[in-house]
């Protein structure tokens, strides 16, 4: 019978040796140390959501009236029952898909126009002097005020809603991109010029990378404002969409559906912002390090 040493000697040379328990424990400890901040944030966030649900349940169960009335607010279980019913309804899914399509089109157009325009305004003073006053006059106008004008400007409600969504996200993207351009270190620009870089190379290698953090900040803020603008437009002039679903539920006195629509808007907005943050980490890996 072969001894353990002989068996080890006759083992296949390329066979993988499973890691020992001490090595596995060391890797687990190292992973925990590297991700302890994320785990802590996840635990605190989960606990915060649970506390919110418990408080919501207690306030609606006992119909608390203290400054704010919770007599007609639906309980979490009622909203969950409405959710289980809605996910099997193709009409509810169509509302969500139409809102997501409007957000995608309006936000994409705002990013395509806002980012290059902000870069150009930050680089050329004449363009800044021409565009900035007009942008500052239009920027404070809320999305609801644009609804009648958008209906007159565009031939269909769909185009007018996309236009309002575009306006809501355009100005945060433009201003944050412009702010990022103003913070570019002029020493880097002079160094690039001394090395013989032309204007296009300076834009590509200096201005754009230095402005990326502010650009993605503008994209994140613009996505939130885009959802606000979209919901306002759908409530007033839309016939489909999650905003229209929420307003229709209010008109039909379906309180659980109102809360369901609000939660759906929050979840969709959160998911959109997370997608932008993930894209920012891919484009700017040096920030995550």
UniProtKB/TrEMBL annotation:
Keywords associated with the record: Cell membrane, Membrane, Transmembrane, Transmembrane helix, Transport
Pfam families membership: BPD_transp_1
Biological process annotations from GO: alkanesulfonate transmembrane transport
Topology with respect to the bilayer: Multi-pass membrane protein
Domain ABC transmembrane type-1: 96-276
Ranges where the record places region Disordered: 1-21
Bias type Low complexity, positions: 7-18
Alphabetical list of PROSITE patterns matching this protein: ABC_TM1
TM spans (from-to): 39-58, 64-83, 103-124, 130-154, 161-179, 215-237, 258-279
Subcellular compartments: Cell membrane
Annotated Gene Ontology cellular component terms: plasma membrane
Family statement: Belongs to the binding-protein-dependent transport system permease family.
Function: Probably part of an ABC transporter complex. Probably responsible for the translocation of the substrate across the membrane.
Protein name: ABC transporter permease protein
Species annotation: Bradyrhizobium oligotrophicum S58
